[in-house]
Amino acid sequence: MAGKKSSKKKDPNAPKRPKTGFFLFCDERREKVKATLGEGEKKSASEVSKLLGEEWGKLTDSEKDKYNSVSKKNMEVYKKQFEEYKKNKPESSDESESSDDEGAKKKKKKRKAKKDENAPKRPLSSYMLFSQTYRKSLVAENPTLKVTEVAKLVGEKWGKMNDAEKAPYVNKAAELKAAYNIEKSKYDATQPPPPKKKTKKEESEDDSDEDSESE
Fold it and tell me: Can you give the residue ranges of every domain in the chain?
């Protein structure tokens, strides 16, 4: 019996992928379609979805473009948000650990590099600096907003800003990065050199030694 496949835990802070044109159309039409069904008719989700699909299929390309163009713009914002999210996302154990070669004995896993608490902290990007400021005002004005909704609004606002409006955050990020590089260089100079990385042959010999000792 095959083992259960472990699924990655979803990060609640990750930007939410935008809806397609069809789903935006469904959001707009769902209640109206439900209202067209008689009292005695079944109003199951599958029945409503079927009717929505039929309506969508009857639309012309220009009518569909109303929803597809919105979806396309949302996708552009999402891609920018996701790139910034990836830059500033803490490294997960799944990404930092390498799986063993196929067919090899799974006795030893590569350990995640231990985070150095004394090392200088990597500075925030211009987008994240802006996000910190704008996020506070958004939440203050709309305390019921979800985390994903706030992230989307922040990304949309950033995407609409021109270079002059972004300049204060870009300049601040550059200053922080320059200061970080200086601190990092000083810190690295005080640290012992990293241990020499073992070759695959040396790792294989270590595994063989462990197997021999265990017999």
Answer: 15-80, 120-190
What's the predicted TM-score (pTM) here?
0.40
Distance CA 126, CA 172 (A): 7
Structure tokens at 151: 């992230």
Per-residue pLDDT of the chain (215 residues; tens, 9 = 90+): 444 555 567 777 788 888 898 888 888 988 888 887 766 555 667 777 878 888 888 889 989 898 999 989 999 998 888 888 887 776 554 544 444 444 445 555 556 667 778 888 889 998 888 988 888 888 888 878 788 888 888 888 898 888 888 888 899 889 998 888 988 888 888 888 777 766 666 666 655 555 555 55
Considering the domain delimited by 15-80, tell me its CATH architecture.
Orthogonal Bundle (1.10)
